[in-house]
Structures are given as C-alpha cells and as structure tokens.
Write a structure and sequence with these properties.
Blueprint lengths: L2 E13 L4 E12 L2 E12 L2 E5 L5 E5 L7 H10 L2 H15 L1
Antiparallel strand pairs: 1-2, 2-3, 4-5
Length: 97
C-alpha cells in the first residue's frame, strides 16, 4: 500500500492585454497507482506591479519570476515584450485613478 502525492502545473494560460500568466497546479494523491483525490490551486503572474505614490506618481516594478517553473519563465520571457509591459503599466495606472 503505497500512497503518493504529486504536484504538477497542468494548465498555463496567457490572458489580457498585459499577457498575465495564469497557472493551475494540480495536487494528486494516489494509492497503489490509483488516483484517490485531485485538488487545484491557482496563481497569476503579471509582468509589472504598480504602486501609486502619495504624490500621485506611480512606481512600476518588473515581476521577479525566479521562483516560477522553467516553463512559466520561458512563457514570460517570450510574451512579455517591452510593448506588453508598457500597455500593462498604462492599464495599471488607469485602474488606480
């Protein structure tokens, strides 16, 4: 009777103007190779984080993707162009006005 628990990124989607990366992670528990349960968690990775300062200016910081999987890093590096980052900054500012 061997019980195993594995996790895998089973769905990665690119959405929106800012090319946000939605990552779904599946946690699977098996007994003797037979799946008993499967549960999901999600997180979103955006190319730029924006903070509105007290003087109404904005500070934009590129997202640190060093803790993401190799696949998510590759996707981010492919789709987060300078034009995408600029559009995301503009959208973030507009949502904070």
């Amino acid at each position: 009777m061997a019980i195993t628990k594995t996790t895998e990124e089973d769905k990665i989607e690119i959405v929106g103007t800012g090319k946000d990366i939605q990552v779904r992670t599946a946690t699977v528990i098996k007994e003797d190779g037979v799946e008993l349960t499967r549960s999901f968690s999600r997180h979103v990775v955006s190319c730029v984080n924006t903070v509105k300062n007290e003087d109404d200016s904005f500070t934009h910081t590129d997202t640190d993707i060093s803790s993401e999987s190799t696949e998510v890093k590759a996707i981010a590096n492919a789709v987060w162009t300078d034009a995408v980052k600029a559009a995301k900054k503009t959208a973030n500012e507009a949502s904070m006005v």
